[in-house]
Amino acid sequence: MTATKTISPQHRPHLHQGYGFEDLPALMALMTGAEKHGPAATSTLDVLWVLYDRVLDVGPATFGRQDRDRFLLSKGHGPMAYYAVLAAKGFLSPAVLSSFGAYDSPLGHHPDRLLVPGAEIGSGSLGHGLPLAVGTALGLRAQGLTDPAVWVLLGDAEFDEGSNHEAVAFAGASGLDRLHVVVIDNSSATHGWRGGIAARFEAEGWSTATVDGRDHEALHAAFTAAHPGRPHAVVARVEPKES
Amino acid sequence: MPTTTYTMRDRFLDVTARLLDEDPRLALVLADISAAGFAPAAERHPDRVINVGIREQLLIGAAGGLALTGLRPIAHTFASFLIERPFEQVKLDLVHQGVGAVLVSAAGSYDWPAGGRTHMAPGDVALLDTLPDWTVHVPGHPDEAETLLRHAVADGDRNVYLRLSAHRNALARPVVPGRFLTVREGRRGVVLAVGPMLDGVLQATEGMDVTVLYAAGVRPFDAAGLRAATGAAAAEVVIVEPYLAGTSDREAHEALAAVPHRVLGLGVPRAEHRHYGSIDEHLAAYGLDARSLRERITLFLP
Question: Using CA atoms, how far apart are residues B147 and B162, in angstroms rounded to an integer?
């Protein structure tokens, strides 16, 4: 029921990796080529960093543990920030980053869970991560694992997909309180959402917070807010896609 | 949907409820269809019997998520809503994630003719043929449905489709998953009857000098069984399926690629059939009743 957890030092992968947030641009710069989702990639950078650095109880050494926290990248477009964070946290060797998109590379322009160490799902087609996360939260609960948190990251335009709305309504109605969503809102949805995205989650009984997606302290506070009995959605607003 | 006899779907409800009691790894995901029948099981296992409401994309996505945590999910609804409506979820949330589930359908191709086209899914097996490594069971009797359901649940983490129909044969056969069964032997050709088509095929071929093979499962396709039944030289094969005509023709051609052969694929036509009525009336309209089958098989055989 608690949203905040203290991560024991041995589960904090960055302690022995030596990479910090300031190293991510250099790691991302290793990924070159014809990838067209550059702006989409940087929109997630701060959120991914705060989650992996301070919130998620998962690292390369604990990834096989059944009681690990799960992070599902639903917005599979522009995964460079994701790969950079996975490399910074020791899931991936930074040496593979430069192979981005190449034939034998594990790193595609959309991630594949069977190729990327640390990736919980393969994604790219929009609207699949949240339903998979709902099933993951249900599966953990059915096995008595009530502590691990399940996180899923969506984009605001991805939220257009109807499959997400099936999942939002069901998760709210069933009080899936270990389920967490973070929506990166860079105002890229064609028609937008009247009243803001958080209102949609609130209407279905979720706990919500809307914060500056570049402010690490605000993100951390939103990510760790208590939400007993309810799933939790954080809308992280970043600069519009076109700016 | 009116049912007057004990159906494969009734057996699915009974057996799955028992399996949930016995196997803590099993989970059942529903989208309102059959939820009332599973109410006692849901009461006993509230965390493993999950009704997501009328949300078929979530039905398959949630099954994928359950499988990611190591459970063995069964997802169940009518075939139209289980395979056709959320087909991208079947492709991505199961196959692409590298996880498996047991998909159990009801209503099939023509179970509820009065319900019209919206509740008919004769293309389901052909659609699954676009994906790799599916097991497809098509039982013809409630006893066979139980055998194949138990096999599917225990079949590792494979993706399995169990296609249940109100159309059934009078007798259960001793089915073995992945193997065709020889029901009758003859010399002029082989007629492969799939699932509930067996009784009609046996009636149609009465007195004819043909081998009748019975398939309660079509994927993987028992190529060795078909080759053995056709014998040495040339092969004449008729396939009678309760879904789209021609669905298994490619499998038969591959199985017989080394010998001269002809294949006639009979089944449900592609064209929409805008009539209501009964299962028997639809089988007759599709040329799948015993009399039509006899004519079509006789015309085809040399």
Answer: 11
Contact present, B183 and B173 (Cβ < 8 Å)? yes
Give me the pLDDT at residue A37, please.
54
Distance of CA A147 to the CA centre of its chain: 18
Residue B228 has pLDDT above 50, yes or no: yes
Contacts of A73 in chain B (CB under 8 A): none
pLDDT (mean) for A44-71: 97
pTM above 0.90? yes
Q: ipTM greater than 0.90, yes or no? A: yes
CB contact under 8 A, B57 and A170: no
Look up residue A209 and give its DSSP letter: E
Q: Which two tokens stand for residue A40?
A: 């989409």
- Closest chain A CA to residue B72: A139
Average pLDDT over residues B55-66: 98
Task: With beta carbons less than 8 A apart as the criterion, state whether B268 and B247 touch.
Answer: no
Residues with Cβ within 8 Å of B201's Cβ and at least 6 positions away in sequence, in order, are B191, B193, B212, B240, B293
Contact between chains at B96 and A142 (C-beta distance less than 8 A): no
B53 near A CB under 8 A: yes
Determine, for residues B66 and A162 on separate chains, whether the beta-carbon distance falls below 8 Å: no
Q: Is the dihedral of CA B25, B30, B36, B39 positive or negative?
A: positive
Phi, psi values for residue B111, rounded to 5°: -65, -30
- Residue reference for tokens 């609960």: A141
CA B218, CA B265: separation in Å to the nearest integer? 14
Torsion angle, alpha carbons of B176, B181, B183, B186, to 10: -170
Number of residues assigned to chain B: 302
Task: Check whether A171 has a pLDDT greater than 70.
Answer: yes
Closest to A138 (Cβ–Cβ): which among B62, B70, B98? Answer: B62
C-alpha B223/C-alpha B256 separation (Å) is 8
Distance from CA of B52 to the nearest CA of A (A): 6
Q: What is the mean pLDDT of chain A?
A: 91
List, in order, residues 6 or more apart from B279 with CB less than 8 Å away: B110, B111, B113, B166, B167
Question: In the structure, what pLDDT confidence band is assigned to residue A32 with cuts at 50, 70 and 90?
Answer: confident
B contact residues 90-149, partner A, Cβ 8 Å cutoff: 92-93, 96-98
Name the E strands within A66-112.
70-73
Q: Determine the average pLDDT of the residues in B168-190.
A: 97
A66 vs B: CB within 8 A: yes
Whether B71 sits inside 8 A of A128 (CB atoms) is no
Whether residue A2 lies within 8 A of chain B, CB to CB, comes out as: no
Q: Which residues of A, range 214-243, sit inside 8 Å of B by Cβ?
A: none
Quick: pLDDT tens for B68-127. Answer: 999 999 999 999 999 999 999 999 999 999 999 999 999 999 999 999 999 999 999 999
